[in-house]
User: Which sequence fits this backbone?
């Protein structure tokens, strides 16, 4: 490999782009570990697992970055959606997803303000599951209009509610983006809390090895590591990259315990599918904390990413979301 040629180039929607320019658009991902952790919600009032040992002896290619990996590990709690054939009864003290029943503060099922279709339920998280992450009482309900993609405040209902009324969805079309039937209520289980290393950090460490992280290239790598066409690796390093990603994935999966059966997670790093769009709190101006991701077989390869800020009294626990498909 010639040392004067970067082995990486970023291609966004078919257009080549300077790494530094891309990194400049994604400042939060060129920050240090402490800044990354500031974007993550910490649970309160629950027993925590021991920190990962970070045993990378099985994956020597990762050894140089062991300390950095452990420094960026944060807590998350995977969510699991029950099997579609196993219908459960909706209850306000249990978390559930899909279906035609929810427990709301008002006896009215929310409708899309654009097309007037009754919204489809994504999930209702019970106070017992949500509380440690929200740091407040209430049940979190998310409903979405899958006819009016990609989602705006007019087409989404996202609220912490007091579950006072059992409400049934009026008749109306249902169509999640993945064409999953959402007419039956399915259980949502909160799995044991565990440590999570950032899902897409492998490329950062790879770029570190080539002395490219400090140039800002790492930001592009972190964001685009999972986008097959997003980052192109030129010439000799390609095989090495693939090996590294496989080793990293195996290591991270062992630490994270997040499998393909997870339908989302409370806390942890936002699993961006495309670009980092962490919202800013309108009250305090800081980047908001990641409360949860929800795929739930409803968002293709993406998720409904939910954020919260209660850093100051004025923030008031405001919720925001970004929908990715
Ligand atoms: Zn709509
Ligand atoms: Zn705030």
Assistant:
């Amino acid at each position: 490999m010639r040392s004067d040629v970067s082995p990486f180039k970023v291609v966004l929607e078919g257009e080549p782009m300077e790494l530094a320019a891309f990194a400049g658009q994604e400042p939060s991902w060129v920050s240090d570990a402490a800044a990354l952790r500031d974007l993550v919600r910490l649970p309160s009032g629950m027993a925590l697992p021991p920190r990962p040992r970070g045993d990378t002896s099985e994956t020597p290619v990762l050894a140089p970055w062991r300390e950095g990996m452990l420094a960026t590990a944060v807590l998350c709690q995977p969510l699991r959606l029950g099997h579609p054939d196993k219908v459960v009864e909706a209850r306000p003290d249990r978390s559930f997803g899909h279906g035609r029943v929810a427990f709301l503060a008002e006896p009215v099922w929310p409708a899309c303000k654009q097309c007037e279709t009754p919204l489809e339920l994504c999930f209702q998280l019970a106070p017992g599951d949500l509380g440690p992450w929200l740091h407040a009482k209430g049940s979190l309900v998310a409903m979405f209009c899958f006819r009016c993609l990609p989602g705006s405040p007019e087409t989404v209902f996202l609220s912490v509610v007091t579950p006072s009324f059992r409400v049934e969805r009026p008749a109306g079309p249902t169509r999640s983006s993945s064409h999953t039937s959402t007419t039956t209520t399915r259980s949502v289980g909160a799995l044991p809390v565990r440590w999570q290393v950032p899902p897409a950090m492998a490329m950062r460490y790879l770029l570190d090895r080539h002395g490219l992280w400090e140039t800002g290239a790492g930001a592009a790598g972190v964001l685009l590591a999972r986008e097959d066409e997003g980052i192109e690796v030129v010439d000799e390093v390609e095989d090495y990259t693939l090996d590294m990603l496989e080793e990293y994935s195996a290591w991270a999966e062992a630490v994270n315990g997040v499998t393909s059966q997870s339908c989302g997670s409370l806390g942890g790093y936002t699993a961006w599918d495309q670009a980092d769009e962490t919202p800013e709190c309108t009250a305090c101006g800081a980047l908001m904390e990641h409360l949860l991701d929800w795929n739930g077989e409803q968002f293709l390869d993406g998720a409904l990413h939910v954020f919260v800020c209660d850093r100051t009294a004025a923030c008031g626990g405001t919720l925001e979301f970004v929908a990715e498909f």
About this structure: Residues 78-194+257-324 form one domain. The chain has seven helices and 16 strands.
